[in-house]
Amino acid sequence: xxxxxxxxxxxxxxxxxxxxxxxxxEDRSSLPLAALLDAEITLWQDFEYNHKTxxxxxxLRLVVGExxxxxLPGALNTGFxxxxxxFYSALQPITPPRWAEVYDKKVTAMNDRFLIRTWRVALPxxxxxxxxxxxxxxxxSFVLDNDAAWHAVFS
Length: 155
Description:
Elements: H1 8-18, E1 21-22, E2 41-44, H2 56-64, E3 67-70, E4 78-81, E5 86-88, H3 103-113, H4 136-145, H5 147-154
Helix pairs in contact: 2-3
C-alpha cells in the first residue's frame, strides 16, 4: 500500500514476466474470476475493490483458499479452491462497502489474511532505479547480484 511513485508496482511488475498471472477483474465484469483458473499468481496492480464486480465474502473465500464458484463464458460455475498467492498494490487496504453487515469483523478478517506492507512516502527521485530490469532473468540478477543496491532502494 502507498502513495504513487513509492515503488509498489516496480516490485510487482517482474512477477508478470515470471509467472502466469491473473490481472485485476475489470469493473462491473460478469466474469471477474475467469482468469484465476489458469493463474500461478493473482497480481492486482493498482487495485480498487468494487463490490459490484466481486462480492466481498467471495473475495475472503478466495484469499483463504475456500471453495468458490468461478463463472466462465458459456458455462456453468466451476468450483475452485485457490492456491495461488495473491499480490496487490493499492492506495488503501481492501475493505468491504461501509454499509456491509458486520463491517468491522470483515475488515479484521481481511487484514488477518494479508501481510500488508505500507510505503508512507514516494521514493525520492535520486533513489529510484530508472533502469529497473523488466525481464525476469534481469530482475533476478539485479536482486541477487546487487543485494546492497536493492536494500538501499527499499530500506
